[in-house]
Structure formats: C-alpha cells, structure tokens
Amino acid sequence: MKVDQEKVDLVIRGGTVVSPSSSIKADVAISGQKISAVSSPGILPKAEYEIDAEGLYVLPGAIDSHVHFREPGYAYKEDWATGTAAAACGGTTSVFEMPNTNPPTGTLEALALKQECASRQAHVDYGIYGLLDENNIENLEALIENGVSGFKCFMGNTFGDLPAPSDGAMLEGFEILSRHGYRCTVHAENPSIMARRQARMEAAGRTDTLAHLAARPEVCAVEAVGRAVAFAEWTGARLHIAHKSSKDALYILKDAKARGVDVTVETCPHYLLMSTDDTDRLGGQMRVNPPIREPGHAEALWEALHDGTIDMIATDHAPHQPEEKDSKNIWQCDCGFPGVETQMPIMLTQVNQGRLTLQQYVQWSAHAPAHAWGCYPNKGVIQAGSDADIAIVDMKSGSMIDREMLHSKSKMTVWHGFQTSASVEWTLVRGAVVVEKGVLVGKQGHGKPIQQKMPTPAPRNQEKSMEEIVKIRD
C-alpha cells in the first residue's frame, strides 16, 4: 500500500488491530483527523509522531450511548470537562449525553446552553439528546433542526424528577420522530407501579437498601418495554432501550427484532457483574435506576449479548457527590454512579476471563452504537477514511480501581477496589492524542458534535397520526 509520506502525521506501529471479525497485526497511519491507511507492519513511511504499540491492542474508541454530565444545572456533580476527561481516560472517544439537566434539554434555549458548555470543554466527541416529554412535542422538529442527536423519553422517574409523558404524548412524539428517522431512547419502567409501591413502603417505615428494588419489580420493565415497542412498531419510529437490567422483558425484544422492529438495546457493566449479593458491601452506593437485581439476571443478560438481543454496552454514567449517596435511608440516596472511565478496563478484564472475545467487545462497545446512531463508518471502526478515534490497550497490565484517581468529580463508585487485568494506555480523538501512557494530555474544546446520518425514515400509519387527524376536512 502506497501512502504519501507528506500527508502522514502519526503512525501507530506494531499493534494488533481489532475489528468485530478479526484481530490482525498491522500499522495504522493517521493524516489530519482521519485514518489514512491500515497496512502490514513495516510498510508505512516514518511520521513525525509515532506510537510504539508492540504487544498492545488497537481498538476503535468506545462509543457510550448513555452518559449524564450534569451541566447545566448540577455542575458541582460533573461538568463537561471532567466528564469527558473521564471518558477519554477510559478509552471512550464519543458520548451521547442525556437531557435531564437544569434546564432540561427540551427547548431550543436549553439546547443552545448545553451546546455552548460542551463546545468549550469537551475532550471527546459528543451527541446531545433532546427531551421528549408531555409539554414539548411542538419543539421536537426544531430540536432536530438545531442539532440534537436523538431523543430521550423518561417513561420512569429518574434524577431531576422529570415527569413521564402520557401515552398520548409519547405516541405523538414517536409519530414525529418516525418521519425524520431519529432514534428515541426510553427509560422503560412503569412510573405508576413504582410510585405506589414506594409510597406504601415509606408509609410502612421501610428505608432499607432493598426497598428500592422492591419498589421497581421486573414487571415494571416488562410493561414499559412492551408499550414502547408497540408504539415504535406502529409508528415506524426507531427505538433504543436504555440500561437493560433484568431478564424478564428480553423475550419481548427478541420477538420484536424478529418482526423487523428497529429496536436497539444496551446494558451496563454493573448489571452484568453485580447483584443484590453486593448490597451489604455497597449499601446506598448501589442505588441506581433500574436497580441491580437478584442473582440470575446477569447470566441472562450475558446470553442476550451473545445472541444479539442486546446490542451494546453503555455505562449510564451518573455522578453524584459522596454525601448524596451515603444516607442510611435509601430514599434519600441519589440514584446512579460514575462509570465511563471504568467501563473499558472492567470489560476487557472479562475478555481475559473468557466471558467474551476482543472482537465481541469491539462489536458491543463501538461498532453497534456507531450503526445505531448513524455515525458509522466515520466512527466505530479502524479503516481508511474513518475518524482516527482509537484506544490502545494493554491486555496484560491492570490495576485496582481507586475512586480518588477518577477524573470525574464523583468519587463515590461501586467499582472502588475492583481489580482489573487490562488498561487503557493511549486514546486518540480524530487523530489528536488526548491520553498518553495513561495520562490526560488533551485540550478542552477538542471534542466536536458527532456527525450523523441516520438511514432513510420508514414511518408507518401516518394517515392515523395526530398531524393528520387534526386537519380540517371538507
């Protein structure tokens, strides 16, 4: 392969380049922000900047479809600089950030405020979710025109106390999004069941850690997943199920995929590797929505990843300050914990333990989310013409996770003390080195909005949509 030496800015030499289908010894040339060549070792010309990746693995940077960076409104928990620094140090080169900030990202004014925060501070590339709720249906198309990457619908309650929209508003929102081809992520839990059960338990004096789980039984997800799939199938809207935590609704998703419904699904490391057996050790730290469940669910989630029912790994990075997580009353503990910096070392440790292959990890962490969010082949793959978003990892060198070493403002993590057997050594975002030998060296503001091109929309039943039925007829 002939490469013009004048155009090669950086060469990664001697590493093993991993894709969903192969692991090959290869050198990677980068020109500007793009990969210009992937070739057999020793062919590429010398470059001014070279990385010796001998003995290391060269992966597409992870794409995290679910992070909360808290700014604007809650920057004391996290801001765009600290959140994206954590992402970069964890080998994540693209993030999609959730709308439950203050103000929520449901108006053009709120979107512009968040875009300004991100543009000044981000170390990695980013997408910003718009909110779909009861009162902003008329804003959805304007949000699309002004740069949101997708939408989030909180069917169940979460941080920020955003009310779940009515079924009528949710269906109307899906009708609109189906015409534009945009994907809507849903937090699929039934809010009525959860609110009633929590109120009854609080009245009875239950404040123990497991009360949170008891308030959110699996049927909450079964009902909400089924409802979301029904609305997506009826309208032709693209659907994404966030943070799948339980085995019970997997059959609904498997059947929907078999029928051709465009539904993608994520799960998170804490659902794959933790259970209520960790309650005594972690207490209120492990409160998260949906909850970490009893033993037996994780095995089903692993199986669903392997058979394709679950498409990808995300983190639901949800930082809080330690004092917001340490109450003995579970209802007073904020929900969530950081995860974007620890995801890759933790999951690569599972590779070393034989629970998945490196190729599967690349599929679940980069390739699948790139396809789901319309940014493939710019992202999610190491090939000529793609963005040079790369994580170089050492599969033989791990460490014990120390909360004080996290780049997030949140130092309260359920992964404190977890021993990894792999590490992220280098992270490149569009050709720029942002992490070098494990140290953050990138500049704030390097991250840019992710360029997306979703497939052609395929709306259904539009003649029965709200837009059509309210038209005056002769």
Span between termini: 67 Å
Radius of gyration: 22 Å
Number of helical segments with 4 or more residues: 14
> What is the general shape?
globular
- Give the oligomer, counting copies of the same chain as homo and different chains as hetero: single chain
Please give the largest β-sheet. Answer: 9 strands, mixed
User: For the residues shown, what is the average pLDDT?
Assistant: 96
Low-confidence stretches: none
Which class of secondary structure composition applies to the elements?
Answer: alpha/beta
Q: Kindly state the percentage of residues in helix.
A: 25-40%
Beta-strand share of residues: 15-25%
Keywords:
eight-stranded parallel beta sheet, 17 strands, alpha/beta, 30% helix, nine-stranded mixed beta sheet, single chain, 474 residues
Describe what this molecule looks like in 3D.
The chain is of the alpha/beta class and 474 residues long. The protein is globular and about 70 Å long. 53% of the residues are buried. Helix content is 30%, strand content 19%. The mean pLDDT is 96. α5 packs antiparallel against α6 (209-215) and α7 runs parallel beside α8 (250-258). It has helices spanning 80-89, 108-121, 140-145, 167-180, 191-203, 209-215, 218-235, 250-258, 269-273, 279-282, 297-307, 343-352, 358-372, 466-469; strands at 10-18, 23-31, 34-39, 49-52, 57-60, 62-67, 92-97, 125-131, 150-154, 183-187, 238-241, 263-267, 312-313, 390-394, 423-429, 432-436, 439-440. Strands 1, 2, 3, 4, 5, 14, 15, 16 and 17 form a 9-stranded mixed sheet that branches. An 8-stranded parallel sheet has the order 6-7-8-9-10-11-12-13.
